[in-house]
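A protein record in our archive is deliberately plain, so that people and models can read it alike. The record that follows is passed on verbatim for readers who wish to inspect the format.
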Amino acid sequence: MVSFLLSNHAKSRMLQRGIAINEIRDCVEFPDYKITKNNKIEMFKKLNNKVLRLICVQENKFIKVITLMWK
């Protein structure tokens, strides 16, 4: 199990865009693919005919989700 945190911005976007915490957890733990560049990690997961995109950074033992959106 991967430990992750949500930034305040990510929490706002989560509510605004109707993204559930379990969808975020699925994307963090089992991304379909991820891209790492400039200390940022982009994770993508197909869920319900849409693709969830997370922008994250590694902070010690945690993945911090900065923002998230449906792609």
Residues 8-17 form the longest helix (10 residues). Residues 4-70 form one domain. The chain has one domain: 4-70. The chain has a mean pLDDT of 96.
